[in-house]
Amino acid sequence: MMNFGVFLLFLIGLTATHLNNPPVFAKPGETIHVPCVYQSQIAMHFSWYKHEPGQNPMLISTIYKYDRNARFYHHFENNSRFSVLNENGVHHLVIRNIQISDSATYYCGSAYSNVMEFVEGTELIVEGLKSNTVVKQHAIIESQSGDSVILTCTVLNQNCVGNHSVYWLIHESQESPPRVIRAHGTSIDQCDWISEAGFTAHRCVYSFSKKELSRSDAGTYYCAVAACGEMLLGNGTKLDIIGSTEQMMTFVLLSIGRTVLLLITIATVTVWYCMNSKKSVERELFSA
Length: 288
Prior knowledge:
CATH topology of the largest domain: Immunoglobulin-like
Largest sheet: 7 strands, mixed
Keywords: Cell membrane, Disulfide bond, Glycoprotein, Immunity, Membrane, Signal, Transmembrane, Transmembrane helix
Radius of gyration: 32 Å
Subcellular location: Cell membrane
Structural class: alpha+beta
Low-confidence stretches: 1-20
CATH architecture of the largest domain: Sandwich
Number of strands: 20
Strand content: 35-45%
Number of domains: 2
Number of helices: 2
Pfam families: V-set
Protein name: Ig-like domain-containing protein
Organism: Phoxinus phoxinus (Eurasian minnow)
CATH superfamily of the largest domain: Immunoglobulins
Distance between the termini: 124 Å
């Protein structure tokens, strides 16, 4: 158990840091590297902490700046799945053979003199198969440029009822990976129980709104839900922005139509003027 002084330093470090690192999604059995990069040359000792919701932060390891091997604590000691890579100012926590129980936020701390500092935490979310959870999204939504749209994500769960951490990701093209655009954090809003044809489940509905849509907002939006020790990804909602191209084409066609009509009018007036002028000359000749 972490003593009160260290825990207080931990909280002070957290309040002084912006926890804006994107979450890391992993599947059981994978290996990940959680990086920790320090620019300061003063820090001499580094440490890793694991923080699970509702629990005190747990010390994983400590290492001296110039050492190669870290010292591990608690159940991380003699656990070959955890190791520390310490070189060239980069302090990696390596987790092998990822397990569902590894889902947590990991913080890297540095110490010099009597000062303890922390950098941004990295939330690790491990996909699991512990409960019958279903994440549903609308397959496709079409919206006009300039309009607003609300994307919804419905989470159905039979065996496990608890708080959900919901993330929204967008996949804009095949060339780029999905990126996190919004995190709901922990919420139990808009939840109820449903029962249909003998099927009973806890249902939560989450929404994500975008205003003044433009063509750059087009893409596939995924709802990622972390609940009860597992991570599930929705099937994705494809957002098509219509209206920009169509409106441009309509404007171009109308412009071409007006131009053609103007040219026809000018040509008609010119021909009429020429014919009338010719008739006037002929009349004058005959009169003479």
